Predict the structure.
Amino acid sequence: MKVLVTGATGYIGKRLIYYLVSLGYKVYGTVRDQNRFTVPESLQANIHIQEADFLNPASLQQLPTDIDIAFYLIHSMSTSYRHFNDLEEKTAQHFTDYIKTTNCRQIIYLGGIANDAELSRHLHSRKHVEEILATSNIPVTVLRAAIIIGSGSASFEIIRDLVEKLPVMIAPKWLQSRCQPIGIRNVMEYLAGVIDKPETYNMVFDIGGAEILTYKQMLAIFAEVRGLKRWIISVPVLSPKLSSYWLYFVTATSFALARSLVDSMKNEVVCRNLGITDIVPLPLMTYQEAVELAFTRIGQNEVASSWKDSFAGSEAPLKVSEFIQVPEEGCFKDRRDFVFTRSPEAVVNNIFRIGGLQGWYYLNSLWRLRGFIDKLFGGVGLRRGRTNYATINAGDALDFWRVLYADKQEKRLLLYAEMKLPGEAWLEFKILKKEEQNHLVQTATFRPKGLLGRLYWYSVLPFHYFIFNGMARNLIHYGE
């Protein structure tokens, strides 16, 4: 059976692809940039990644038509708070137009629980997508989920940031809203469980976990799991916009995503359409079990996907392949070349562990300050960290950088800056052999935009001397 999974680099899509393959399905994944999904060699016979942008109908012409099942997992709420409704409508319509040309016999859509009479913009948009998909005349199975808890999920990471960073929380009144959080494992089981089941055709089901909690209770249970004492004080005076800024500055989320989440939290997301439990009977995880399992995966360094690595992790549209060639003309460059005598593999391992909890090997306090300044100007900041402490692939988020190219065999790592800048910036690490000597070549490239960009470069130049020299030396000697 051939299954199409849209949004293959997203948090749900990436996990679903691997889960479906483990069940014996042949999967076609769609991505906006093929360079952002690396298929393990052992799975290449069963995973086919194809480039397609559902905002551009012309790019869909090369997609397969002999598919049996299609998962629609595209959303745009983190791209633009003002325009995500229009973007979601367009992508859903273009998908519907495409799917009509195929042999598909079932569309499976993961949306959000939308049972209240008055819905947030986000939940209303999700519901509108359901209506568009139904116009395809292909049976649609809609699964509406509450908050999804799993290692790397946006909800999990936001709660983690709040609990682990704030001993005392002055929180908005929406913390008293009720929801029914569901573990990512149960989400995967439900998505796969409805495949090719006629009793789910043209039906809408709510999916949730084993219990109903308030957001305040979720924070308290999370703190208990982490062995932390936290005080949470709810106040009625924080407007949605102030609440969004509160989430944005304390957590790793973008402002657009924070605003969408805050607006949705006024709605109660509790399951009412419960028919799925009879069709796909599952042992449902409690919220605490989902949190504990997430930390087990993090401890084992087995986080399969993260919302930060998807385009949701940045407000900047980025096609990796367009930035791999670092420009030469009109650029400022800071190039450091250090000869070293230790094993090149040891230095490569240090390079590929850069960022996240490891830090930047020199003056981490200044890197954190730069991340804080970036947040003040509406950027992503350093809080995104990295998904895996030792492994990185093209397309991954790495603090306020995006990985463009990562090849240990080639001994090269190339990063592109997603911080707020008056220009574009690249940071490249390469290990070269010259005249029987090993060289670490570290190059920072900046392409300024106008006078402001040039002033910015010269203002940070004094810091480069200390930071980049120190970073390169420590990359060579760390772990000796």
Summary: The mean pLDDT is 88. The radius of gyration is 23 Å.
